[in-house]
């Protein structure tokens, strides 16, 4: 039974969003319009995408088509409903979103994040920019069927919907997920049923998705596809693991034992590694953000090189180990807080790479603080314990949160002989498919 239902206003957009969901690791089918009576034949998929061919019809007809589709497909175990909209806001955004809210009920809020970084779409101050040009100055304004003469996304919705619309902007997103959560809940309490939120980058959308998970609201995602894919990652269990997949390693321990194990792994296993320069994480917020973006970008760009990806702290080289005392004095920040900045950087990098590469099935982490930071940031509820690989190295499956279903091995930095890291990563590659099959049964 599908856990995600996406309704798109045309077939091209439906397939584009379906591809994003597929890349995130979900079995995804498109159900063609007119075949609704055969929807049950596609019940084995994770995500079902349905085009209504309603972009250029009247608002009333668009409403009826979306409402009929939802009434047919709505099920209690659906975790995510999504309204796929055009990336240039053409069509019946308001009436189609109204249909979702009417069918699903008062508990639901529609959250519109019309950002598509790889296609040059960004929402800034509520205004949609297409390759840095305001929407009303693009060719979308000249569309013969569905011209758009405004750049203000909130205003476009207000002109088309029966429900209250509110907006949150980049300054709100920049405050982080916890603060944004409070802003979202406040808008909900004030009566907003449609919320339009600024985003420019993937990181912005990640923050919005994390805030919604913290808020615990029932939401309909309204976007061109990328934000829906992020929310699907957080809401749908990865129960249908592939027999073949990749492993991501987050290696932050800098002691001699971990360094020796890392060198051994680099020599024996085919992996793609990028090094995190810890001094750049501590230097300034701008330097920290640039370093995180550099590593995420490089790992995702090189993800096709091997089945093992790794982010490794440069401190495994003794000459690059940080002098925390100098940073404590210069920045006036306690050592524990400095360590947390590094741990959180590892966590953000790991989670964003997992989100960006749908083939990752296993996570190996070394260093207890880094492991804890990853699961805390992911919102993991618990771990299904499966085995002990080497003494003091546990193997299990994450339950709940952003990496629900991911198979994990964590090991202390000073645990094991020189081959321990190779043993753990090799074990993870060989066993997560077996565990996935047992879990699915």
Q: Write the CATH homologous superfamily of the largest domain.
A: Putative sugar-binding, N-terminal domain
Structural class: alpha/beta
**Beta strands, count:** 18
CATH architecture of the largest domain: 3-Layer(aba) Sandwich
CATH class of the largest domain: Alpha Beta
What average pLDDT do the residues reach? 89
**Low-pLDDT sequence parts:** 238-243, 434-441
**Termini, distance in Å?**
15 Å
CATH topology of the largest domain: Rossmann fold
**What is the total number of structural domains?**
2
Provide the spatial order of strands within the biggest beta sheet: 2-3-1-4-11-5-10-9
Overall 3D form:
globular
Please work out how many helical segments DSSP would assign: 15
Overall helicity: 40-55%
Radius of gyration: 23 Å
Taking the sheet with the most strands, its summary is: 8 strands, parallel
Task: Report on the architecture of this protein.
There is one protein chain. 49% of the residues are buried. The protein has two domains: 4-235, Rossmann fold (3-Layer(aba) Sandwich); 246-440, Four-carbon acid sugar kinase, nucleotide binding domain (Molybdenum Cofactor Biosythetic Enzyme, Chain A). A hairpin with a 7-residue loop joins β17 and β18. It is an alpha/beta fold and 441 residues long. The strands form three sheets. It has an eight-stranded parallel beta sheet with strand order 2-3-1-4-11-5-10-9, with helices on both faces. It has a seven-stranded mixed beta sheet with strand order 13-14-12-15-18-17-16, sandwiched between helices. A three-stranded antiparallel beta sheet has the order 6-7-8, with no helix packed on it. Helix content is 43%, strand content 21%.
